[in-house]
Amino acid sequence: MSAKTRTSCSCWFSCLNLYFILVFLPLITLSYEHQQLTNCNLFEGSWIFDDSYPLYDSLQCPFIDPGLNCLKNGRNDQDFLKYRWQPTDCDLPRFNGEDLLQKFRGKSFMFVGDSLSNNQWQSLACMLHAAVPNSNYTFDRTRNRSVLSFPEFEFTVTFLKNGFLIDLVVEEAGRVLKLDSLSRSDQWKGVDFLIFNSYHWWIHTGSLQTWDYFQVGDKIYKEMDHMEAYKIALTTWANWIDSNIDPAMTKVFFQGISAVHYHGKDWNEPMVQDCRGQTKPIEGSNYPGDRYPGEAVVKNVLSNMTKSVYLLDITLLTQLRKDGHPSRYANGEIDCSHWCVAGVPDTWNELLYTILLQK
């Protein structure tokens, strides 16, 4: 073989290797990462300190309710902003708000539920705004609805307050929860991504309870086991999804049960009153306290649906974050049920982003 032929072969193999590195290696890497995420339980893991967090400056975000903007309200310890959720068997991709806006250009997202849904909506609004700070946006907020739009991307993300999902009607006898009636669902139709939530209002008792009676069919009950009522109501919602949603057009998620931290004995610190003064997560991947009764209800209802609904199973990862609540920095009462923004709800949106990338 002549020297010229050897040189040509060498150049050809070098070019082939370069082509493989530039074209196929990234595809192989992406395929491996996708396979790793597909086989990974995203909701089993632990919190690790990461100095690259938070993903945005809450003081620069115009969408946060006064009671959730913990830094603005004087919280000085900031380590709670520095923790990242690490699944046991995989790594989450870094959240990229501009990528989300580009990939889902022309799409609409809607969070429907109670104040925990609003918590997640505010977090995502801040994450997107921080990703494209020079992009124009429109923002409209009324008593029960918040709408943020990015015209450049034809992208809209909405929060719609509806804590029970089913009907609460004021009648002559009083406030009636109609467990098998759902009449305010027109606004859910035509949305590309729906993220529902309902739980915390169902466990209220005494003066916090916002209803007087339950109704199923023609029968009215002064009292009923709250989890039994919750299951009937959630089944009513599930039946609506099964009858009205086309999975090819709309993807549906259900935000799982978010933890509260009002009793230190729940995490083996009986001398601790509540979340006040807590500055670090619980270490490891196990929570010593009890599970919430609503978890089994949610999983049972979702498992019996004919249409696919993805559960954002955030219970464990929130149980481990006794440090993430507004506590005394809630612009009012002690709050150990909602979450500082920035903070824990950012992880819910990182998980949502990860799942959307898989799909």
TrEMBL record:
UniProt superkingdom: Eukaryota
UniProt membrane topology term: Single-pass membrane protein
Any Gene Ontology CC annotation: membrane
Domain Trichome birefringence-like N-terminal: 39-91
Alphabetical UniProt keywords: Membrane, Signal-anchor, Transmembrane, Transmembrane helix
Domain annotation Trichome birefringence-like C-terminal: ranges: 92-354
ATP-binding as UniProt keyword: no
Family recorded in the similarity comment: Belongs to the PC-esterase family. TBL subfamily.
Listed name of the protein: Protein trichome birefringence-like 42
